[in-house]
Amino acid sequence: MTLRYVVSGFSRAVIVVAAAIAIGCSPAESTAPSAAAAVGPSAPFYGFLAVNSFPHDPQAFTQGLIYRDGFLYESTGLNGKSSIRKVTLDTGQVVQKKDVEQKYFAEGLTDWDGRLLQLTWQTNVGFVYGLATFDLQKTFMYSGEGWGLTHDDTRLIMSDGTSRLRFLDPMTFAETGGVDVTDGGRPVEQLNELEFVNGEVYANVWQTERIAIIAPDSGHVTAWLDLTGLRSTGGRAGDDVMNGIAYDAAGDRLFVTGKLWPQLFQVRVRK
Length: 271
Ligand SMILES: [Ca+2]
Prior knowledge:
By secondary structure, the chain is mostly beta strands. The chain has one domain (4-28, 41-270): Lipocalin (Beta Barrel), CATH 2.40.128.630. The protein has one helix and 24 strands. The protein has one helix at 27-31, and strands at residues 4-7, 15-18, 45-55, 62-68, 71-76, 83-88, 94-99, 106-112, 115-120, 125-130, 136-141, 149-151, 156-159, 164-168, 175-180, 182-183, 186-187, 191-197, 200-205, 210-214, 221-226, 242-248, 253-258, 263-270. The strands form six sheets. An eight-stranded mixed β-sheet has the order 18-19-20-21-3-24-23-22, with no helix packed on it. The protein has a four-stranded antiparallel β-sheet with strand order 4-5-6-7, with no helix packed on it. Residues 1-37 have low confidence and may be disordered. Bound molecules: calcium ion (CA). The site of calcium ion (CA) has 9 residues, from strand 4, strand 18 and strand 22.
């Protein structure tokens, strides 16, 4: 695969992805089981154009991100630093914040019917807050680890660090099903932050700069959004991996950031 990025100053149209057709090489191949059988061709790669950037709190260990009605809502992780936040897009200013108890490492975030739903990593508990007030209304339990969270029209969609996406009832939080995510027959592990975009699930793959675009009912990766190069404009070495996808459906704007990244980007997919 050959990708060429031309990076110029960062004001508006910033990163131009030129010539980005992958042939015979995919991100799944590097992580696929060695004895994979019955595998097929991998999904195509998409490039990107970064059309805008915004400030992002470089202390925010981003684990969940959504866009609603002009604001970002963010879940941050780490014990003692976990929180939910309401953030002004243009300035990155945190206008509302609620800390999570130190014993919890907060993870994925989504909204449902005027509430915010937040997962925790290894403590098997999720929190339900009022979207406007951030008041803790209830908790819910689940098995396994909590990583990413989003929803479609009828169900919550949750990742747990494996290749599986689980479906939960948004009111009772009962697990109602799930799907194993594959690319060309190979499992795609470590699905992390999620976003539901026009009928498909976008999933950060942990410790990569790739987003898997997944058909939720089959689990098939339909394409890879390769955001290599976006991080080079900021961020720090270490844990600062890409993790954070939000979608403004009304404005058709896709936002991406990462843990401890000083910037959040609006990106356009280049097919
Ligand atoms: Ca998200």
